[in-house]
Amino acid sequence: MNTPFPPVEFDAAIISKLSQSGPRYTSYPTADRFQGDFGYGQFLEAVAGLRMRRSRRPLSLYVHIPFCDTVCYYCGCNKIVTKDHSKAAVYLGYLKQEIDMQGRLFDGMGQIEQLHFGGGTPTYLSDKQMGDLMAHLHANFDFADDAHGEYSIEIDPRTVSVERVHSLRAQGFNRISLGVQDFDPDVQKAVNRIQPEAETRAVMDAARAAGYRSISIDLIYGLPKQTMASMTQTLDKVIDASPDRIALYNYAHLPHIFKPQRRIADADMPTPAVKLELLAMCIQRLCDAGYIYIGMDHFAKPEDELAVAQRQGRLQRNFQGYSTRAESELISCGVSAISAVGATYSQNEKTLDAYYAKLDDGVLPITRGIKMDNDDLLRRIVIGKLMCNFELSLSSIEQGFPIKFRQYFAAELEKLKAFEDDGLLTVDDEWISVTPKGRLLIRNICMVFDRYLGVAQDIAPQPLRYSKTI
Ligand code: SF4
């Protein structure tokens, strides 16, 4: 398959009708299903299993730097806001210890083809600290060369100079994503993130001059003080800046969960109707400007690797969103980071104290996780394919698993009929195909295949845990 996908179609009536809370499926099972009885021992077993099977799947690394200088009020990330940079030095000591342990475990098991630094703010680290950390990673893992590896870092343009952008390239990064959210000064003030447009443009120009292979910009719709007029101006500037990829996130206002969001005045929030208009306008403008809607918040230029991978049916979904690489073992280091190794997910301790304590005890700082059963693995593939390709070949699933799709998923296919009636998808003997209208509601469609939804949990009820699907 190598055909362009049909454009996305915005249907306000259907979107309003189906608006509900739901997971983003960066993993399946989702992280709220991880269990406390999964720890270091189970992780070691998973790695031993890979060794026994002589797995040659490529390796990916994720490194989490949790610190930020100031807090953005919309933020729902796991971060530590402090101006005391000595905390980063202590953290780096422990992080290196964890990298040493993971490096020994995965020794000889393949090359790192993907690296992602996320946060927090990775560039909270000084240039010297980052150079040191990258050298440490290279000492512990075998990296594919620059032409074959995807090495990306999230950059807060407020924290880097032109020289720093060049330095990060020299340290091995070849992709950057820039947090922008909105260029409008009133919106920036309302979310406590003052970031002049010129500063962001200077970083992008520097990145182009330094030879980064891809520049991505993060935007958010639904922020306080956003209006159609302000968002139009922001999009003008973004389109003019011409990043290779754009992530357009829906602001999830969950002040009962995320404390900083309590500093956002309710009166400044756009109404749900305005939010939908904002989304429709953003999609229209970005598609008119030549960007392809990849799915779930992501747009890319047609020649960008993400769009190419989607056309060729080899797009993957992971904790960073979409990825062009074949499924790989994901080794994650740092507080709260989530690894995906073999048929397991495992998450590190979420507080610095607990993270440090486990490393002091000489064990990997894993706090919870899950060992997937066959049903989990099957549903993970179904959800992943729908998220990435907007279609699913039933026979391809039957080739990989000993099931008859129509029998195994009889209840799910019955539930899909309501989506079919709304024109969001079609089901025939061979394919489930999501229509242009259904693409924006892909989370709702995938939720049908999520075995855990609706299962009683001793945690907060579903509407409180997840963001709105659109
Ligand atoms: S949005 Fe980014 S920079 Fe702002 S507080 Fe959250 S993690 Fe830190």
What tags apply to this protein structure?
19 strands; alpha/beta; 19% strand; binds iron/sulfur cluster; 470 residues
> Bound small molecules, which ones?
iron/sulfur cluster
In which order are the strands of the major sheet placed?
9-10-8-7-6-5-4-1-13
Counted beta strands: 19
Mean pLDDT: 92
What's the end-to-end separation, in Å?
A: 29 Å
Q: Biggest β-sheet, characterized? A: 9 strands, mixed
Helix coverage percent = 25-40%
- Quick one: overall form? globular
Radius of gyration: 22 Å
- Uncertain residue segments: 456-464
Counting DSSP H or I runs of 4 or more residues, the number of helices is: 17
SS-derived structural category: alpha/beta
How much beta, percentage-wise?
15-25%
Domain Radical SAM core: 53-288
Subunit structure: Monomer.
InterPro entries: Coprogen_oxidase_HemN, Coproporphyrinogen-III_oxidase, Elp3/MiaA/NifB-like_rSAM, HemN_C, rSAM, rSAM_sf
Subcellular location: Cytoplasm
Briefly, what is this?
It contains 17 helices and 19 strands. The protein has helices spanning 12-18, 40-52, 86-105, 127-140, 162-170, 185-190, 197-210, 228-241, 272-288, 305-311, 352-360, 374-389, 394-400, 405-408, 410-421, 442-447, 462-465; strands at 59-65, 67-68, 80-81, 112-119, 150-155, 175-181, 214-221, 245-250, 292-295, 298-300, 316-318, 321-323, 329-333, 338-341, 344-348, 366-371, 391-393, 425-427, 431-434. Iron/sulfur cluster binds at residues 68, 71-72, 75, 77, 79, 119-121, 156, 179.
